[in-house]
């Protein structure tokens, strides 16, 4: 594929521990060891981060640094949107996983009338919301923003007005909500999730493929079955 554009997001603010922002440079260093020209062959855009917020007090304990996450969503979704509309294929390299929701938003903004599928290759479901989160870390919430879900059935927190307003803004980035239907999400190797997330998976009948299934059937067979399952989706976002 010749029309790839790299979008780099060295973000830390959605995670609970530090170091995620170093991932992109680690991949680049590994590429050098293999004499790969991948990172010089394709154009790249570096997204401004909000990592300065790591040194400031947390205002929203159930959605930590959500104002910074909102800024990132706006920048990333705009970049993905413009990349797709310019007929480039976006490859988003990010730090913490909170930014995945912004990538989905940008894809949907570029194709608002098309059905979007999501393949989520991760041990975690990332379906928490400010109302259910055990940690307040936003990297556990990107899929909930994509399906525009609060999960009030399992509400555990009273969220302040400013946080609720910011959360609703995240769900409605691009003035489209939801960005993806829950039944058009496939989890691969999901193993570590809470009862609140399990409730949504069962409520919407989200497809889950375990690591054991991948090992038994092989990645090629799993890939074929996943794409058959999402065959009515015009575009598919893969997150790992």
In summary, what is this structure?
By secondary structure, the protein is of the alpha/beta class.
Task: Describe what this molecule looks like in 3D.
The protein is of the alpha/beta class and 240 residues long. It has a single domain (4-239), classed as Ureohydrolase domain (Arginase, Chain A, 3-Layer(aba) Sandwich), CATH 3.40.800.10. The chain has helices spanning 23-33, 38-41, 66-85, 100-110, 142-146, 161-171, 195-204, 211-217, 219-229; strands at residues 4-9, 44-46, 89-94, 116-121, 185-188, 207-209, 235-239. Helix 3 (66-85) runs parallel beside helix 4. The protein is globular. The protein starts with a strand and ends with a strand. The relative contact order is 0.16.
């Amino acid at each position: 594929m010749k029309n790839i554009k790299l979008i780099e997001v060295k973000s830390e603010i959605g995670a609970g521990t530090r170091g995620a922002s170093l991932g992109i440079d680690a991949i680049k260093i590994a590429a050098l060891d293999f004499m790969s020209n991948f990172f010089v062959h394709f154009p790249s855009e570096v997204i401004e981060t909000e990592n300065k917020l790591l040194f400031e007090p947390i205002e929203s304990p159930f959605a930590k640094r959500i104002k910074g996450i909102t800024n990132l969503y706006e920048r990333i979704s705009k970049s993905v949107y413009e990349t797709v509309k310019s007929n480039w294929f976006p490859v988003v390299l990010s730090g913490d996983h909170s930014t995945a929701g912004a990538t989905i938003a940008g894809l949907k903004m570029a194709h608002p009338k098309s059905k979007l599928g999501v393949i989520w290759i991760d041990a975690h479901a990332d379906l928490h919301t400010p109302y259910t989160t055990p940690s307040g870390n936003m990297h556990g919430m990107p899929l909930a923003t994509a399906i525009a879900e609060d999960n009030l059935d399992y509400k555990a927190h009273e969220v302040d007005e400013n946080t609720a307003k910011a959360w609703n803004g995240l769900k409605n980035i691009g003035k489209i909500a939801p960005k993806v239907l829950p039944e058009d999400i496939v989890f691969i190797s999901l193993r570590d999730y809470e009862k609140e997330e399990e409730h949504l998976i069962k409520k919407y009948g989200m497809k889950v493929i375990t690591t054991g299934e991948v090992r038994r059937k092989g990645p090629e067979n799993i890939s074929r079955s996943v794409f058959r399952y999402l065959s009515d989706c015009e575009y598919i976002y893969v997150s790992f």
